[in-house]
Design brief:
- The chain has one domain: Class I glutamine amidotransferase (GATase) domain (Rossmann fold), CATH 3.40.50.
- It is 28% helix and 27% strand.
- It has 8 helices and 15 strands.
- A 7-stranded mixed β-sheet has the order 3-2-4-5-1-12-13. A 4-stranded mixed β-sheet has the order 10-11-14-15, covered by helices on one side.
- β14 and β15 form a beta hairpin.
C-alpha cells in the first residue's frame, strides 16, 4: 500500500484521477478482510462551522472513484480529535480503517492534533493502510514535516501569505510515514523556494513539492532521501511535481516531473 500526497486543489474534474488509486488500494485492503465496501477515515481540523461541509467534500471526492463508507474524525484548531460520538479515536480505530485521508487547513493545527495519534497511524500504515494527505495532510506525513513560515532569519523565502501563522520556516518531527519533506500548492502559491531553502539550510535532506489537483504516490518501502523520493514515485493529476535532494554544501538538486500519462 502507498502514501498519496495531494498538493491541494478542489477541481471536481480531477478527483477521479487524484483519489482513484487511493480508493483502489483501500478496496483491496477491505476485500482482504471480507468487507464489501471500503471504510475510509477522513480527518479534518478547522472551525466548527466548516467541518461538516469539509467532510462532505471529501466524501464526494472519494465517491467519484467508487463506493466507500466515510467515517469522520474532526477537531477544532485548539481542540482534540473526536469521532461522531465525541470519543477520541483509539489505536484500534486507525487499524480498522481501509484507507485514511487527512485533509487540509492550517498545517500547524493538523500537526498538533495528530501528534498524539502518530504512533497508531504509523503502525496502521506500516501494516498496509493506504494514506492520502491533502495539503496539510501531505505536509505532516514525512519524518521531518515543514509546517510553514516565510523567512529564514531575515531572508524571505516565500510570500508572507504562505506563512501558516508562522514567521520563521519551521520543520519538526512529523508522522514519519515517508522520508522526504513535503511542500504543496507549489506552482499556484510559489512554495518551491521555501522547500529549497529548508533543504539548503539542513532542515531536511530531501523533499517533494506537489501542484494542486495532483498526487504523488509513494511506496514507503522504497522512498529514499538520495532521490528525493522520485525513484519510486508516480505523478498523476493535472499538474507536476518536483523532487529535491541535498547536494554538496548548501546546493540542492531539483528534478521536475509531469504527470504519468500511462496511468
Amino acid at each position: 500500500m502507498s502514501v498519496h500526497l495531494v498538493g491541494g486543489g478542489r477541481d471536481p474534474d480531477a478527483t477521479a484521477v487524484v483519489y482513484g488509486s487511493f480508493l483502489a488500494e483501500a478496496a483491496q485492503r477491505a476485500e482482504a478482510v471480507g468487507r464489501a465496501v471500503p471504510r475510509i477515515g477522513v480527518v479534518l481540523v478547522g472551525d466548527a462551522d466548516d467541518l461538516a461541509a469539509g467532510v462532505d467534500w471529501f466524501r464526494q471526492a472519494v465517491a467519484s472513484c467508487g463506493p466507500a463508507e466515510v467515517v469522520a474524525a474532526t477537531a477544532e484548531p485548539a481542540g482534540a480529535l473526536c469521532l461522531d460520538d465525541a470519543s477520541a479515536p483509539a489505536a484500534r480505530w486507525w487499524s480498522d480503517l481501509d484507507g485514511l485521508l487527512v485533509g487540509g487547513g492550517l498545517t500547524p493545527a493538523y500537526h498538533r492534533v495528530l501528534q498524539p495519534h502518530a504512533v497508531a497511524i504509523r503502525v496502521a500504515v506500516t501494516d498496509g493502510l493506504p494514506y492520502a494527505g491533502f495539503s496539510a495532510g501531505a505536509m505532516i506525513a514525512p519524518r521531518r514535516a515543514l509546517l510553514g513560515g516565510w523567512r529564514l532569519g531575515s531572508t524571505a523565502v516565500t510570500h508572507e501569505d504562505n506563512a501558516e501563522d508562522l514567521d520563521q520556516v519551521t520543520v519538526v518531527d512529523g508522522l514519519a510515514l515517508i522520508s522526504s519533506t513535503v511542500e504543496v500548492h507549489t506552482s499556484q502559491w510559489g512554495t518551491l523556494s521555501r522547500l529549497v531553502a529548508a533543504i539548503a539550510a539542513g532542515e531536511a535532506s530531501s523533499g517533494i513539492a506537489v501542484d494542486e489537483n495532483t498526487v504523488v504516490i509513494l511506496d514507503p518501502a522504497t522512498d529514499g532521501p538520495a532521490t528525493g523520493g522520485g525513484a519510486s514515485a508516480t505523478v498523476l493529476g493535472t499538474g507536476q511535481a518536483w523532487f529535491l535532494a541535498a547536494g554538496e554544501g548548501s546546493s540542492v538538486r531539483v528534478d521536475r516531473r509531469e504527470r504519468d500519462l500511462s496511468r
